């Protein structure tokens, strides 16, 4: 068996840091927020946002999708349906177990696509999308990559632009190439079913996102059936895909709080 961590120069210490379980922060308000990381990201990345929301009084839970928060190899046989069903089960269990009036799900990147589809299985009181794609930049390149590469390369190492801030401890740094097919599938499926989305919706997008096309938020906005829906742009000094620190997180928290207050009044 190939040791891909060793092959890609990943230390045992880094592998241990990728083991990031669910995070629960209890608040004193009756609105419960479930946050979902993006593909190959672990819950630790969402901790700054979760803490900021918890400081506002909300109970927040950051949950891993199947195959996440453990090791990259655990993604190998995961299908997009596993992600959707896993989050739907999480929504159902928390609605039954916790005394909350409303449940809101928030997804980062592909986690947002999963939130959209899961909300069709288990009703929610609101959906927050952060950097959620309809199309990725280089979408067709990735589509070709996902279909051809698995035949001659089982795993590959991640590559990012040098000017992008990212903590390597918060994300798998290599991945099974065949799982990219599932990423594109869950994106495509969520886009096809946008008209069935009726829950209040907040769409957040960084202004200079290096990864998601600028028209993605508008496609979502224009095609959902939600009566309450809003797009907010997050201004950053970089091309970060999602807000991760400092003022970016603070501004994101303000936008989410305003959205939650609207839901809570209805």
Describe the protein in words:
The chain has 266 residues and is α/β, with parallel strands linked by helices. The chain has one domain: Rossmann fold. It contains nine helices and nine strands. It has helices spanning 4-7, 12-17, 47-55, 80-97, 110-118, 139-148, 180-192, 216-223, 246-265, and strands at 23-25, 31-36, 59-62, 102-108, 126-130, 155-157, 174-176, 201-206, 229-234. A seven-stranded mixed beta sheet has the order 1-3-2-4-5-8-9, with helices on both faces. Helix 3 crosses helix 9 (246-265) and helix 5 (110-118) packs across helix 7 (180-192). 43% of the residues are buried.
- The average pLDDT score comes to 90
- The CATH architecture can be named as 3-Layer(aba) Sandwich
Could you say which structural class the secondary elements and strand pairing correspond to? alpha/beta
CATH topology (level 3) name: Rossmann fold
Q: Approximately how much helix is present in the residues? A: 25-40%
Spatial separation of the terminal alpha carbons: 56 Å
Low-pLDDT segments: none
Any idea how many domains? 1
- The CATH superfamily is known as Alpha/Beta hydrolase fold, catalytic domain
